[in-house]
Amino acid sequence: MGMSLADVDAVRVRFGFENSYARLPERFYARVNPVPVAAPRLVKVNVGLARELGLDPEALASEEGVAILAGNRVGEGSEPLAIAYAGHQFGYFVPVLGDGRANLLGEVVGRDGVRYDLQLKGSGPTPFSRRGDGRAALGPVLREYIVSEAMAALGVPTTRALAAVTTGEQVFRETVLPGAVITRVAASHLRVGTFQYFAAKKDVDGLKVLADYAIGRHYPEAAGAKEPYRAMLDGVIGRHARLIARWMTLGFIHGVMNTDNTSISGETIDYGPCAFMEAFDPAMVYSSIDRQGRYAYGNQAQAALWNLTRLAEALLPLLGTTEEAALVSAREALAGFEPQFVAAHLEGLRRKLGLWSAQEGDAALAEDLLGRMAENGADFTLTFRRLAEAACGPEGDVGVRGLFADPSAYDAWAVGWRRRLEEEQVSGGEIAARIRGVNPMFIPRNHLVQAVIEAAVERQDYGPFEELLEVTSRPYDDHPDGPGMVRFWTPALPDECVRQTFCGT
Ligand code: AMP
Ligand code: MG
């Protein structure tokens, strides 16, 4: 099908960029255009998200749109740049990291009135690339697309995926792989590491400009506080306490919780070797590069607090007129993390068990179940989901107890749970509905993601990608339980099980 110039004009992509980061001082970023690729091809445009952003999905999918999404053309009003940042990677400080393979195209204000970054990832080298090629392989792009969209559907604060394209070029990792570019949408790309970048340079003016920008964009209420920077720090700490609690209640393991991957807006960002756990094990680690288990499932709250402590340190020059006062303020702020995390986590667990009222023994009840799940290799997602059937009486226990190596471990726990359910004073059906509302049936299980990647990379077959996206976009629904659906909620068989994930950078 040929396309005339007139057609191209007809579908002209209008982003309506309104850029604010590009107005910040020059030393905050490097202006650099994406590096064009050989043969861009569209994999996917996120139609729903495009509309939420006021963008025309058809225009994005047009030849011109795909050229922009691949970095071959710079859209109208786009001011591409790579953001400078630093970061602690696995505990070691790197003073200059920055977007080594990402490009901030610009910002758009969505229909919700919120300003969003549009960023390409895999769009070629930048001054921050060090020895990297600036590219991304198709596999990690599809993983980020699926997992970030699943997280959004689950109701977790996260960056989103607007589009994915292939480049027609090869990238060289352990093997030769097809190249791809993902377009990511974020409330912003400000990270703990962005603050560390200026703090390490002792650039207090830069730090202040950055903090004022972050307040304006993410914590406007802090601007009117007696101590705005302390209020912003409190805000970041609170959002992360709640974010990690959400991850924990879904069995999500981020995998690379470095300070450069810790967002100031409180969104989940930088999906690399992330995974949803299957058999419950608090020590679970999937990432091939996390050899010490620093970012194991059960360490995530501690890791977040460690990262927030680095943020507080970076902010010290803004937290008080004397060093002593600043330290006192930072310590007070950080002390707020644990109680907020514990409360949010407990509230999340309560709801997973169908409990809307709060009782003394609820934490112990939840901990007891988790302990039995760990001892019995019970699937994290299905155990909670199947409590819905069990809520209607012991005759509904069959599904959940079968997930335990020793089903009697569940039976012993269920006695106390049922006693506690009575205090809710609602019907079993009501409890079941509550449980289904917060415990997903469908998560992007690792072996499913793996199969999606294999089909795309080896056979250019995107059918499995589309299917998994569709299923995980409605994670709480009871889809018609036809034979085709079973594989989407069934845990991996031993020979399908993915025990390690790779960041693939
Ligand atoms: P990540 O592990 O993806 O959070 O990346 C950490 C740092 O390495 C960031 O500064 C990235 O921009 C950079 N990086 C990762 N992969 C590449 C690549 N292929 N080329 C250039 N820079 C990269
Ligand atoms: Mg990163």
Key phrases:
6-stranded antiparallel sheet, alpha+beta, 12 strands, binds magnesium ion, 505 residues, two-stranded antiparallel sheet
Number of domains: 4
**Number of strand elements:** 12
Q: In terms of structural class, how would the helical and strand content be classed?
A: alpha+beta
Q: Enumerate the spans where pLDDT stays under 50 for 5 or more consecutive residues.
A: none
Could you describe the largest sheet, including whether it forms a barrel?
Answer: 6 strands, antiparallel
What's the helical proportion of residues? 40-55%
Shape: globular
Termini gap: 36 Å
Query: Averaging pLDDT over every residue, what do you get?
Result: 96
How many distinct helices?
19
The percentage of residues in β strands lies in 5-15%
Q: Give the cofactors and ligands.
A: adenosine monophosphate, magnesium ion
Radius of gyration: 23 Å
What do these coordinates show?
The chain has 505 residues and is α+β, with helices and mostly antiparallel strands. The chain has four domains: 185 residues, no CATH class; 152 residues, no CATH class; 86 residues, no CATH class; 44 residues, no CATH class. Helices cover 44% and strands 12% of the residues. It has 19 helices and twelve strands. The strands form four sheets. Strands 2, 6, 7, 8, 9 and 10 form a six-stranded antiparallel beta sheet that branches. The chain has a two-stranded antiparallel sheet with strand order 1-3. Strand 4 and strand 5 form a beta hairpin. Helix 5 runs parallel beside helix 18. It starts with a helix and ends in a 16-residue tail after the last helix. The relative contact order is 0.10. The model has no long low-confidence stretch (mean pLDDT 96). Bound molecules: adenosine monophosphate and magnesium ion. The site of magnesium ion has 3 residues, from loops.
